Amino acid sequence: MSKFASISGTTSKLPKAEQMMAWSQDDVQTFLRENRTRLNLEYADIDKIYNEKIDGEAFLALTQDDLTKLGIVLGPVKKVMNLINDIRGKPSIKRKKHDTDDQKLERFWRALKNGEIMENKNGEFLKLPEDGNYLLDQDEQGSNTNEPNKPSLFVRRCYHDLYEMIFNNVKVRRWRISGNPGIGKTFFCFYLLYHLARTNQTVIYHRLKKPSILFSDDDVYSYPEDNIHVFKDFLANKKVWYIVDGREPMDYVAKTILFCSPQKHYYDAYDKLNVAIRYMPVWTWKEVDNCRNELFSHLNQEYVWELYKKWGEIPQFTLFYAQSDEQQALLKMAINAVNENLLDFVGETTEDNNSSHRIVHIRPNVPEVGR
């Protein structure tokens, strides 16, 4: 009896992802040969996979594009991808109310792939097709006057620097990107997703109070419940990216990036896992004004300048909430709430002194990198 399961008629006998991760190149070849008829593969197709030195871990990371580039025709490719998804443990049943969401997520992922970074007198902007609005808050991202239905994100210089650090440092598998609330960490997260989409990466994206989402070339879907563990087989793959925004991440093999404010409950346990930490700098007046001119042109420059002088370099209050009397009032309350021990406050916050971050700004040292 073979140690490799047959896939005829059921997925109950499939190898577990954890088992396949330990398979050698020869094990994968044997498995495919034993299931060749079911998968409609030719021996030549299996040899093509074998010659690429595909072991169990690499097999689970294969995409439809990978197999097509090997010259395997579409029918067997689809069957192999269905098999990989079954082994990975993709949920087979989803609530119907999420079907429409999944379609919108697919269009959002395509929009990221089709996005462009364009430069003008106001700086660089990531321009997305209309479907790029799905996960973005239109009120917070601003709106291009010429194309109000197409989302645009202001690309700060530090986005490039942080992106290069993360992608070029292959030895670091866990990152924490922090900074003041309202500084734009989530927007950098979308900038990062844009690059991951363009390079055909597999991503598990998990945002605070939102379902976890799989983005990949083969499939895009969200799980109906707030349960990251449904994607555990993907997260066991070190080639997968695990992007966590505003919540505590779980400990997985996947390359993990946590975006969070400096509230200890987000990162206390995570930071014990050999994490590289970077802080986003506050905005310069030039950045604020360029972003205003391109995306918030309805705001008067003099008015924004007064807010900038009053509240500092956090765009959430100088641009996004510039016309919100309620949010501006919160800033005034924050001043009254901060006591004389303010100078002892060093980037740490709790629920009790969260208002301090509206007043105290984190200013990291930003090296000049060839600029």
From TrEMBL:
It comes from the Eukaryota. It holds the Pfam family SAM_1. Residues 23-72 form the SAM domain. This is Crinkler (CRN) family protein, putative.
